[in-house]
Amino acid sequence: MTLAPRCRAVLGILFTRSCKLTDFLPSSQVISHILSFLHVSDRKEASLVCRSWYEASQDHQFQRNMTFSFPATATSLRFVRGLAHRLCRRLAISHLDGSCLSRQVLVEVAIHLGPRLESLALPGSSVTESSLLGLLPHLTSLQKLDLSGLDSIFMSGTFLCQERHRQQVRTGLNNLEELDLSNLRYLSDLTFNRLTGCTPRLRRLALAGCHIAFEFDPYRGCAVGQGSSAMLSLRNLLRLLQDQAATLRALDLSSTGITPSSLLCLARVPGLRLEELGLRGCRELTDHSVELLCRHQRGLRCLDLSACTELTSCSVLAVGHLRELRALSLSQDWRVTDKGLADLAALPALRTLRLAECLHVSGAELVKGLSRPPPRAQLQTLSLRSCTYLRDATVYSLAQLLGSGLRELDLTSCVCLTDLSVHAIASFLPGLQVLRLACCKEITDWGLLGLLEPARSDGLTREMSMPEDKQPSLTRTFGNMGFFKPPNMLLEEKRQLVTKEDLGAFRQQDGTSLLALRGLQELDLSACLKLTDASITQVLRFPTLQTLSLSMLTEMTDEGLASVACHCRCLTSLALSHCARISDKGLAHALLQLPRLQHLQLACCEAITDRCLHLIARYCKRLKTLDISMCKDITATKVDFLQSQLPFLEKVQYQETQASPLDLSVCTIG
């Protein structure tokens, strides 16, 4: 077991100070205090040093908000009994079914953890009604219950049909605050009423993806319908909102097909004061319905209107009146433009703004709004993914205005951005923890290094200083047919490679390279095709980086990969798909230094062979997912061997390369 350099340094300093004060080996309480200064992943590594460190890492302060996730297997029974001696309050149990083993797992949970469990999720399960009914009455402290996708419970329509079962469950769920019923195909009025009747103090309710019958009588101005045994109706949903209006604060109706009139009916429930509302993918909503929603629910703090394709900038103007709004998502609202974004930027409480795939947004109005005198938004998360009108000047202004408070920035597929944007990010956003620049194809080594490319700067100066009558031109009619020399396109000029002298200048400078983002935890540079080892070996040196994507960097070699692994040892996720120059040799150097790796993508890496699977089996004991699709020199036999060697491996994507009759690149044409 090897600790990361940063972890070793921190531990060394803290232990030295502790020993000076106590003059003897620190007690478990002192060790726990020292471990509290470490990141979770570093603390996990430190717990493997010796037994006293392990016991100190099990302190209650570290497990208060920890969720224990595990599948229902034969070893789960012993694991659950072991959790009885720890402060376990949150569980996520997967792969439960109707077997005796699954029933026994739930029985053990009820006996050993039931009275103190606060959160329970059952993802990817098909548990039986009797097993769940035997567990719920014991969960007297439960505050959050996740039954999303658990169709096996609701398919028959008889869940909680007996009064004695409802009384028992009501005893266990009386203090429940969060209920997730998302993606249930068979949720009916009857089962919904029975279950929610046992949860009188709900604060959060999720019904995303459920089949709900939204019926509204425009003449009577109310919901109609008598309650169906096959589908949840608007009438019953309104009844729940009216009964629990005093406590309910969050509602998720994403992907339910809610209509404008139904939304108005929900928004006007007497006494209902929603703080969070999810409407993602509700394609029937209109600008007028959003205006009425904002008029009746002025206390909204979190609003998700993404993928509501009928909405325009009129909805943005309406949302601009929600003075308490903290998080807003308008992603994939293709009709939204810059109009109204200045008013959003003036909301003093706004911290998260997502405008991904808003194709007509350039960011100019956002800059204008942030330039106003305070109070204004103090954004911590900003997503402008696929906003193709975004330019370097806008990014430069946004970086200056947002400053050190910004924590997450997504500029994926903003194809017009160049090295100037990278310089601005590195100079003005030192607090960034997440940066995504995938598919920004004009970013080069010069941008990451914080240097100005001589050829481009000289060409730009020469072009700007040339007299107008001397500049090349084209005729209106004939275009470029040899009569005139076409103008030089700066973006198409052959770029100048970084030399050793340039790297020497980089090492002597301060500031504008990507190295300035010292707290970076996630970085995506996928498909930045102009990046090479010259910048990768010098800049990708982030001791706290956990997620890194370098897919489709065709110029990166084994040398670059080895450098990344040497300087980013905390990586848990690494994407290298379509890196044709990465071989077994590079992976051998990298995997040796990445013991925490849990997710690895190597799809279409043509130079790797079966040997890499032996390396993965040897060094990546914690690997959970692996993608080796279309790697022509990897065989199915070795994939089976790998799966037998890694105990935590959950998913392997493997597809052999096969010649397709439509793919002329792999067919022999006679």
Characteristics:
20-stranded parallel beta sheet; F-box domain-containing protein; 24 strands; 670 residues; two-stranded parallel sheet; F-box_dom; 11% strand; Leu-rich_rpt_Cys-con_subtyp; disordered C terminus; alpha/beta
Mind explaining what this structure looks like?
With 670 residues, the chain is of the alpha/beta class. It contains 27 helices and 24 strands. It has a 20-stranded parallel beta sheet, with no helix packed on it. A two-stranded parallel ribbon has the order 7-10. The protein has a two-stranded antiparallel ribbon with strand order 8-9. Strand 16 (381-383), helix 18 and strand 17 form a beta-alpha-beta unit. Helix 7 (100-112) runs parallel beside helix 8. The longest helix has 18 residues, at 5-22. The radius of gyration is 29 Å and the shape is globular. The protein starts with a helix and ends in a 17-residue tail after the last strand. Residues 16-25, 459-494 and 659-670 have low confidence and may be disordered.
